[in-house]
Amino acid sequence: MAESKSLEATKREAMGTRAARRLRKDGKVPAVLMHKSDTPVNLLVSAREFEKIVKKGARLIGLQHPGGEDRVFIKEVQWDHLGEKVLHIDFTKVAKDELLMLEVIVILKGKPVGTVEEGGVLDQYIKTVKIQCLPDAIPDKIEAEVTALKLNDRLTVKDLVPPKGVKILTEADGVVAAVTEHKLEEIAPAAAVPGPTEPEVIKKEKAEEEGEEGAEGKKEAAPKKEAAPKKEE
Question: What is the pLDDT of residues 24-34, one digit of tens each?
Answer without folding.
Answer: 888 899 999 99
